[in-house]
Specification:
This protein is mainly alpha-helical. Helices cover 47% and strands 2% of the residues. A two-stranded antiparallel ribbon has the order 1-2.
């Protein structure tokens, strides 16, 4: 036991010394030599998936957002889980609880990790609960294809970033160069998933604060919320909106109440953008202007507040929305990635390497 404690102390010293700093920058050409076919592999897989079901595109986009939005720490004491290669499972278990609260990761594929008996994952925590984030099987399939082309080279975090970009573009939205070079987390942060992700009943102040905590602006908030132009939401998420809010279109509320009863039926779902639910366009903003935002948090962007003018711009100018959305997706993808020798390149996105 004494030897283990000594090893633990040494491990913690190395971790603190490492400081979690990324020693490499993200780059769109990161895999140009090591895996030049990766973007084509991801694109082909996403094209087939979206052709089979447009909802798969929305699911991947949601996974990317929910992954990047969890596990950010601004403390100088933040460090990476894998800056030290643990030689003892016992030491790893001892260090792990401290890592849970001293994590410096964002877009790190931690959301993709399954629960283990010792470590609850993020998939059933907070806003992810109730099966609201699906698409994991699709990422698994893409990972298998990428591994066949370039073994142990491309991270799950980068695959998810590429798949999200392709999902948007295949559904009719913009494309952009995705900075690459992320590495994968070696543990999830279920607590962060429960606290960092804004809920569907969040007010504007909470939304702005949540984005600011990730280094994102109110303009990023307005643009990235446009991802709700595709996908569905459960009745549980919009019941309060259509029964209680005073800024909801009466016709829209009546329509949604037919889908979502005042009690029960929590899993009944409705499209976030009722006008063009399968197309990535600016219809979401037109809905907000007409008082037909499905979620309370959506309508907060257009409710006699500081973002009203930007919502009006996006509702009238799809190109302006596309430009801002693409730029904000790059900024979101730059939230606290693991790079260099931090983290690992997971061989299976659901589990850490043995």
């Amino acid at each position: 036991m004494a030897a283990t404690r000594l090893l633990l102390a040494a491990a913690l010293a190395l971790l603190v010394a490492a400081g979690g700093g990324a020693d490499a920058q993200l780059s769109a050409g990161f895999y140009s030599a090591s895996c030049p076919t990766v973007q084509g592999v991801v694109r082909q897989a996403m094209s087939q998936a979206v052709m089979n079901s447009s909802r798969s595109g929305a699911a991947i986009l949601r996974l990317f957002f929910h992954d990047c939005f969890v596990n950010v720490c601004c403390s100088p004491l933040c460090f990476s889980a894998s800056a030290f290669q643990f030689q003892s499972n016992q030491v790893r278990r001892l260090i792990h609880p401290q890592l849970q609260s001293a994590n410096a990761q964002g877009c790190d594929a931690s959301l993709l990790l399954d629960d283990t008996p010792a470590t609850p994952g993020e998939k059933s925590a907070g806003a992810n609960a109730g099966g609201s984030t699906f698409g994991f099987d699709l990422i698994d399939s893409i990972k298998t294809q990428v591994e066949a082309a370039c073994p142990a080279t491309v991270s799950c975090a980068d695959i998810l970033a590429l798949a999200a970009r392709d999902a948007v573009n295949l559904l009719g939205g913009p494309s952009w160069a995705v900075p690459l070079g992320r590495r994968d987390a070696t543990f999830p942060n279920a607590t962060g998933a429960g606290t960092d992700l804004p809920g569907p009943d969040s007010g504007l102040d909470r939304l702005v604060a949540a984005f600011a905590a990730k280094g994102l602006t109110s303009r990023d908030l307005a643009a990235l919320s446009g991802a709700h132009t595709v996908g569905n939401a459960r009745c549980l998420s919009f019941r309060t909106r259509v029964y209680c809010d005073d800024n909801v279109s009466p016709a829209f509320a009546t329509q949604q109440r037919q889908i979502c009863p005042a009690s029960g039926g929590d899993d009944a779902d409705a499209p976030l953008d009722a006008t063009t639910p399968d197309v990535f366009d600016n219809g979401y903003y037109r809905s907000l202007v007409s008082g037909a935002g499905l979620l309370h948090s959506d309508q907060e962007l257009f409710s006699n507040g500081p973002l009203d003018s930007l919502v009006r711009i996006y509702s009238a100018n799809g190109d302006a929305f596309f430009d801002d959305f693409a730029a904000s997706m790059v900024r979101l993808g730059n939230v606290g990635p693991l790079t260099g020798t931090d983290g690992e390149i997971r061989l299976n996105c659901r589990t850490v390497n043995s």
